[in-house]
Amino acid sequence: MIIQKEITLSSKPRGFHLITNEILDNISEIKNMEVGLMNILIKHTSASLTINEDADPLVRKDFENYFNKFIPEGEDYYTHTGEGDDDMPAHLKTSVLGCSLNIPIKKGQLNLGTWQGIYLCEHRNRGGNRNIVITIIN
Amino acid sequence: MIIQKEITLSSKPRGFHLITNEILDNISEIKNMEVGLMNILIKHTSASLTINEDADPLVRKDFENYFNKFIPEGEDYYTHTGEGDDDMPAHLKTSVLGCSLNIPIKKGQLNLGTWQGIYLCEHRNRGGNRNIVITIIN
Amino acid sequence: MIIQKEITLSSKPRGFHLITNEILDNISEIKNMEVGLMNILIKHTSASLTINEDADPLVRKDFENYFNKFIPEGEDYYTHTGEGDDDMPAHLKTSVLGCSLNIPIKKGQLNLGTWQGIYLCEHRNRGGNRNIVITIIN
C-alpha cells in the first residue's frame, strides 16, 4: 500500500530548522504500521532536507555558517546571477544536501536514532512557503 | 508491484546535463499509476545524479565551475592518481552529490516541483556511456 | 512485502570503510527476490553512508584526507564545541554524504555497478558501535 500527500511548510528565515514535529503532525497514518518506508521530497531547488542532531540549536547555527563559507555568495565564477546573490549558492547547497529523505517506519514511528531529527534547510533570504511530498510505503 | 529496468545513457561531455526527458522516455509504465515511488541509481563511481533547476543552462555551467573549484584536481593530498587527474575528484564529487534519487509518482507523472529537473553529473573528461537502474514501486 | 531489521556494526577507526560484505551477510532474505529495493539508514549524526569505488583502498584514504581539509576542525566559526574538535565537522560530513542509501535488488543480489561498494564513513575519533536499519521492499 502506498500513501501520498503534499503539505506546505510555513515560510522560515534563512537557516537550518528542525521540522520533525511538523512532519509527524502530518503522518498520523503511520500509527498502525508495523514496518514501512517514508520518502519526503521538497519541491524546490533552493531549499533542501537533511537529517542531523536535534538537541543543540548551535549545531544548526554552525551548519548555516559552514555552508555560507564553503558555498560562498558573490563569487566571480557565478554566471546565473539574475535572481540575487543568494540564489546560485542556494542551488548548490540544495544539491550537496539533497532534496529528499528516506526514513524507515517501525511500530508506528519513524525509526530514527535518538539524536536524529529532520532539518528544513532554507537557503534563500526570502524563500517563502515550501511544499513537500510525503510518500509512505507499507 | 515493483518494476525494474536498466537503461544506457549515451556518452556526454564532462559537466552537468539535464536528463529528465531521457528518463521519462523510458518509464511509460508510470502513465497509469495513481501514486508510486521511483528510484534511479547510476552504476558508476565517477558520475552522479542530482535534482536541480531545469530552466537556465547557466545554473549547470555554474555547478561545473563550483565543483571544480571546491573539489580540485592535482592536489598533493591525492594518492589514488593512476587513472588521471580527473579521477579522484570524480569519486569525491559522486559521493557529495550522490548516485541515486528517489522521486514520487502521482497521476502518471513524476511529482517534482515546477523548476526541478534530473541532472546527470559527468565528472570524467571521457566518461563514456553510463548505465542506470530504474526501480518503480506502486 | 517489507522486511526490516537492525544490525550493529562493530567499532571502526575514523575513516572510510568498505562494508558491502557486512551488509550482504545480514540480508540473506534477498536471495530469492527477483526485484526489490533496499534502504539502509545509519542511526547516528556523526557517521554516514555512501557508495563509491571498492577496489583501491587509496580511494578511501583520499576521501578521509579530502573531507578533513574541506570540513576542517577547530575553526573559530564553530560554536557547538563541547563534544570535542571532531564533533561538529562530523555532523557536517554526515549531512554532506548522507545517512541513508537506496539500492536496487535484482535476481537475489544488490544491483550495483562493478566497482560500487558501500562505505561506512566514521567521522569521529572514537565513534563506537554503529546501528543500521535495513528495510527491504519486494
Strands, helices and their partners?
The structure is a homotrimer of 138-residue chains.
Chain A: E1 2-9, E2 15-18, H1 20-24, E3 35-42, E4 47-53, H2 57-70, H3 87-97, E5 100-106, E6 109-110, E7 116-122, E8 130-137
Antiparallel strand pairs in A: 1-8, 2-7, 3-5, 3-8, 4-7, 5-6
Describe the structure.
Three copies of one chain form a homotrimer. Chain A is of the alpha+beta class. In chain A, strands 1-8-3-5-6 form a five-stranded antiparallel sheet, with no helix packed on it. In chain A, strands 2-7-4 form a three-stranded antiparallel sheet. The model of chain A has no long low-confidence stretch (mean pLDDT 98). Chain A contains three helices and eight strands. Chains in contact: A-B, A-C, B-C.
Distance between the terminal alpha carbons of chain A, to the nearest Å? 6 Å
The most extensive contact between chains is: A-B, 29 and 34 residues
Quaternary organization: homotrimer
- Give the overall shape of chain A: elongated
Give me the strand/helix succession of chain A: EEHEEHHEEEE
Tell me the structural class of chain A: alpha+beta
**How big a fraction of the residues of chain A is strand?**
35-45%
Q: Please report the total strand number of chain A as a whole number.
A: 8
> How helical, in percent, are the residues of chain A?
10-25%
